Amino acid sequence: MTGSGSGIGRAIVDRLAADGWQVLGVDLKAPEGDLAETLPGPSLGADLTTREGNKAAVDTALEHFGRLDLVVANAGFQHVSPVVDFDEDRWDALLAILLTSPFLLAKYAWESLRAAPRGGRFVAIASAHALAASPFKAGYVSAKHGVLGLVKTLALEGAADGITSTAVCPGYVRTPLVEKQIADQARAHGIDEDRVLEEVILTPHAVKRLIEPSEVADVVAFLQTPAGSAFSGSPVTMDMGWTAR
Ligand SMILES: NC(=O)c1ccc[n+]([C@@H]2O[C@H](COP(=O)([O-])OP(=O)(O)OC[C@H]3O[C@@H](n4cnc5c(N)ncnc54)[C@H](O)[C@@H]3O)[C@@H](O)[C@H]2O)c1
Fold first, then answer.
1. Below-70 pLDDT ranges, the chain
2. N or C: which end of the chain has fewer CB within 10 A?
3. How far is the centre of ligand 1, averaged over its atoms, from the C-alpha of 160 (Å)?
4. CATH of the domain at 42
5. Quick one: DSSP state of residue 207?
6. E strand or H helix at 43
7. Binding site membership of 178 for ligand 1 (Cβ less than 6 Å)
């Protein structure tokens, strides 16, 4: 489970643990002290923009649990900028965390997922931005469209071995990733920060509210049920009507 230190990732760790899973949380920094005490399982600090970080994530899970039944690729960040000014290092980092990390996790975990007694599961927390674009998010939108392609490919390659692969595609979720965008969006659109939530962030939502991280975790938990395997190769869209237009 990557990106476990915040937002959606933390909610998924808590939900899977409550459902009886043993979960390794992986994030840039392993939590320390009181924060570590609140985590339901072990954790690893690793930079998932590197091959070594993704290898360490898989190897550490296998060391702890002896097998690996589920990979949830969730870690990510956002960068908001017009294409003409888009920082090229930020582009590389976005592709590395949002697209290459899920690929490496799947590759390194593949043999373990193949051996999983009830069928291996791969879940990517993609986005409504895997299905639709927004201005000023070239790196994020491109990587999220790419990860949906990866999920579909894994579903086809894994089918004969009982491995399922699904992309969860939420609209805007109440997490630090969204909160951090408010200042950037205000700058990019030339409006005050207090107008950003209503006039920019929630604009694509037909239902005018943010999604809660626990709601995304509920969907990931459902995907682990027998009925969840029917969603292999699919985007599970939970976007408040965004892509219904
Ligand atoms: N918040 C939303 O509105 C929203 C909507 C759709 C999809 N998503 C996706 O959900 C996922 C989680 O987002 P969130 O909103 O919970 O964000 P968040 O900022 O709350 O959490 C992201 C976590 O990823 C970790 N991370 C970032 N770079 C890393 C790296 N190089 N190595 C290891 N860990 C790294 C961060 O440290 C952080 O703990 C992301 O993939 C995001 O694109 C978010």
1. none
2. C
3. 31
4. 3.40.50.720
5. S
6. strand 43-45
7. yes
